[in-house]
């Protein structure tokens, strides 16, 4: 590593490919832990150069547990400068509030295990169908309608999200009620109820 920079200053658009770096012995393990703790405490990442596949590459190194993560970086001329235009101007607070509500209702946790490569899955399905002599119909492509009124689109999305949430709640509530109403059924098809305790006969 030739220099250390604040990790927060490194824009992810320069990231290329990540690699895990493991220590190769007790001495290296201690060095990794010491340097990693110092880097993590200072919020810094290391910048350096390595040769991979006969090519020199710029890399970023940051601590990860008892090891390090090495990320190859793109060169400056490989990253196009963003040109989003001016961010000045007023924003409708009602539209922001609706967007925040949609975001809060769809908030979740980052779980990469749920990621699916749908292209690869469709390709495997197509290959399997070809091997079995079957044909798969191409899915219809529907072009989305252009957004003319952003406020109307946000309200439509919010209404759809509200409807789906209410449907899930009704379904969950209905399932609970149904479970409570179920009675065990005998082999004759009649509902079995708990037998009442026998009545005591009065003495004459």
Poorly predicted tracts of residues: 189-196
Strand content: 15-25%
* Helix/sheet category: alpha+beta
Tell me roughly what share of residues is in helical segments.
Answer: 25-40%
Query: Mean pLDDT across all residues, rounded?
Result: 81
- Please state the oligomeric state of the protein chains shown: single chain
Q: What Rg is obtained from the alpha carbons, in whole angstroms?
A: 31 Å
**Biggest sheet layout:** 5 strands, antiparallel
Element string (H = helix, E = strand): EEHEEEHHH
| Total beta-strand segments | 5
> In whole angstroms, how far apart are the ends?
105 Å
Strand order of the largest sheet: 1-3-4-5-2
Specify the number of helices: 4
Structure write-up:
By secondary structure, this protein is of the alpha+beta class. The protein has 4 helices and 5 strands, in the order ββαβββααα. Strands 1-3-4-5-2 form a 5-stranded antiparallel sheet. The radius of gyration is 31 Å and the shape is extended. The model is unreliable at 189-196 (pLDDT under 50).
Essential attributes:
alpha+beta; 5-stranded antiparallel beta sheet; 4 helices; 204 residues
What's the gist of this structure?
The longest helix has 32 residues, at 150-181. The chain has helices at residues 26-42, 93-105, 118-131, 150-181; strands at residues 3-6, 15-21, 44-52, 55-64, 67-73. With 204 residues, the chain is of the alpha+beta class.
């Amino acid at each position: 590593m030739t220099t250390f920079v604040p990790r927060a200053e490194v824009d992810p658009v320069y990231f290329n490919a990540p690699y895990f770096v493991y220590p190769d012995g007790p001495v290296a393990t201690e060095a990794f832990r010491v340097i990693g703790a110092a880097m993590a405490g200072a919020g810094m990442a290391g910048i350096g150069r390595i040769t991979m596949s006969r090519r020199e590459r710029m890399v970023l190194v940051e601590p990860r547990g008892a090891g390090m993560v090495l990320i190859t970086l793109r060169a400056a001329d490989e990253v196009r400068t963003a040109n989003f235009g001016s961010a000045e101007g007023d924003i409708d607070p009602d539209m922001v509030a609706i967007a925040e509500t949609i975001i809060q209702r769809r908030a979740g946790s980052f779980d990469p295990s749920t990621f699916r490569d749908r292209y690869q899955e469709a390709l495997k399905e197509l290959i399997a169908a070809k091997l079995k002599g079957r044909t798969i119909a191409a899915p219809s492509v529907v072009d989305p309608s252009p957004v003319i009124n952003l406020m109307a689109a946000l309200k439509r999305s919010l209404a759809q999200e509200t409807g789906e949430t209410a449907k899930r709640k009704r379904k969950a509530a209905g399932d609970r009620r149904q479970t409570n109403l179920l009675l065990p059924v005998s082999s004759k098809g009649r509902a079995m109820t708990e037998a009442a305790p026998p009545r005591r006969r009065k003495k004459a």
